[in-house]
Every structure is written in C-alpha cells, then in structure tokens.
C-alpha cells in the first residue's frame, strides 16, 4: 500500500538519491519532496486522464441573494458554488430529466462559481485525492516519475537526468491512463430476442 513517503522514495530511487524516512527530516531530499509532492500530485490529477479513483459527483449548492452574484450571472440563470476539492470538471447534468446529446450541459466557470441554466445541477468532476492508499499501482508509478522529473534539478543538477525522468513520466502516465480506461466497462445496449424479432 502506497504512502507519501514511499512514493517520494520511488522518485528518489529513480534519480539514485538517498531515501528518506519521513518528510519532516532535515535532509535536502525531504525538503525537496515537501516542496514538490503536492503540486505534482495536483497537476497529474488535473491534467491527466479522468482517473476513475478520483471521479466524483455532487449536487451543487446554488448561490443566491447577493447583488454581486446577480450582476455576474450574465446570460446564465443560476450560479453555483464549486466544490473545494475540485480539480477538473467532467460534465454538468441535471439531477433529473434527460441528458443532452453529448451528456453534458453548457456552463461557465468564473472564480469560485459555476454559471449554468440547469437546476438543480449535478457536477461530475475529478477531485483532489490526498490519500495515497487510494492510488492504483500504475498511477503511483506515473506520479513517482513526474515527481522525479521535478526533483532532478534541485537534487542532481543534471538536465539530462531531468529529461530522462520526464520521458519516463510521460510513458508511465500513458500506460496508467490506458489501463484505467480499459478497466471501465463500456455501455452495451441489450436487445432482447423479442425486440430483435419485431425488427426483423
């Protein structure tokens, strides 16, 4: 089971650097991991594929009753507060009623607000996941290489090592994304023998 320290040690191992026992220790490796780990994780969640372990859906809370909100709506009928753990929006849908043709309804992000004409609104999104025990093994591998690419210059001062780590980060991210997508069951329309006979 992965932990923040074990992921950092994977990254350090990719660079041939000394491992750490805790992020709180007074080593250059621990200080660098503290500096880059959180940002590296957030970037991979936000810019990578729609990781299944980070997917979430919630009914948005509508923001009403202030002149500022009323003035900022523009052409939209509703303003909603965004979830605090939002990394990336996947789709906006009504809580009931039909879906749109592409599965999502139009919206606009502005600051910490989402504007839309849908009400009530359900936001499907990628959320921040801080618990490494929830990360799939291939995501851990990709994260460790992305972290290694960030650690390379502070710890080794070798641009070639940074470039090599970055190439591995891209490869492992692609492999993790493909495996994540393959694990998702595709929707299949079932046609009964009765319906098939009627259509014949």
Task: Quickly describe the structure.
The chain has helices at residues 4-14, 28-47, 67-72, 137-156, 159-182, 193-199, and strands at residues 55-59, 61-62, 78-81, 86-94, 107-110, 113-116, 121-127. It has 200 residues and is an alpha+beta fold.
What are the key terms here?
elongated; 6 helices; 200 residues; disordered C terminus; three-stranded antiparallel beta sheet; alpha+beta
Please describe the topology of this protein:
Layout: H1 4-14, H2 28-47, E1 55-59, E2 61-62, H3 67-72, E3 78-81, E4 86-94, E5 107-110, E6 113-116, E7 121-127, H4 137-156, H5 159-182, H6 193-199
Helix pairs in contact: 1-4, 2-4, 4-5
What do these coordinates show?
The chain contains 6 helices and 7 strands; from the N terminus they run ααββαβββββααα. The protein has 200 residues and is of the alpha+beta class. Helix 2 packs across helix 4 and helix 4 packs antiparallel against helix 5. The radius of gyration is 22 Å and the shape is elongated. 28% of the residues are buried. The C terminus is likely disordered.
